[in-house]
Request: fold
Amino acid sequence: MTTPSVALIGALGHGLWHRRAMHRLAGEGRIRIAGLSARRPIGGTEDAPVDGIPTFTDYQVMLAETRPDVVIICTPPHTHLAMARDVFATGADLLLEKPPVPTIEQHDLLQRAIEESGRHCQINFQALGSTALTEICELVAGKDLGTIASVDAVGAWWRPDTYFTRSAWAGKRTLDGNPIMDGALVNPFAHAVMQALAVADAAGVTTLPMTLELERYRSRDIEVDDVACLRITFASGCSTMVAVTLASLTFAAGEIITTGSEGTALLEYPKDRVILPGQAKWSEPRGRVGLLENLLDHRADPAVPLLAPLSRTARFTMIAEAVVAAPLPGRIDDRFLSPNPDGTGNVVDGIEELMRRVVRERTLPSELSVPWATTPHRVVCDRRE
Reply:
């Protein structure tokens, strides 16, 4: 069997993460790097050199000249559908950076393109490769936790003001008329939302319609949220509470909390650790299966299932579409902010404890009479399956 060739569209920014993975796999003899494309010059690093690798400023030229077996797309989500179609037209398989697309309509169009082309497509929700997540999902599916009542997510991080100026689209709601998927819920904490949905899926409770009650806030001059709380109620009666922030002085890595009639299981998703019923402390990190590796394994043997096929992300796309279409996040008044000691922006006073309280008490900030909270935005998501 010949070594598959892999090309990358969007080699700058987060694309460097993919380049490092490509070089590691090339060093192991699993792939050959076919080419890299970006609109600006691509510089090399020690762990991702560009010497000897074809580079392009036009991805379509790269596809035509290199004819790769697998393509990675790491560009803004509003560009994904058109690029994916171009990739499938060359006969290549695809690793598509998350979030896959900004609307459920585009999600359906992308699914159709996959089916019509007969190609394989994996969505790069890296956290779906977590063996700790698999462990929790198997526990839930086996009814070890009994009837699942809720699957929640909480996290508190810090991002400086420069995080929201890192690109032309960062911190924006739209760019050139296209919806932009940025903000705590649908970008850095997208993995938390996706993992919570994956656990709920394993429990068989993510039936439609689902009702979303959303509160989004911003502590700085941006158009997206850096504090967000979301309550999802499924037709099954199960609910998911998500409370996350990028404006916290203190740090909470991110936890998925699964509560059933027979016990509670915790997953610390960035570190892939768990606390199972009867345990008092976090396990050792469980590790992850790389999604590019999984795609390569699936290509070689279709009996190996894709860990993150597009179909697994449909509920996430519904939620992301509703978040992006929601009104402008409420502005948190300066009197509730304090300067971060590192001088790179402000933090929201007491925000980590508030995020934990929202999840613990299953109540939104407005229901807790938080002085800067506003009325929730409510959406019902439904569609014919």
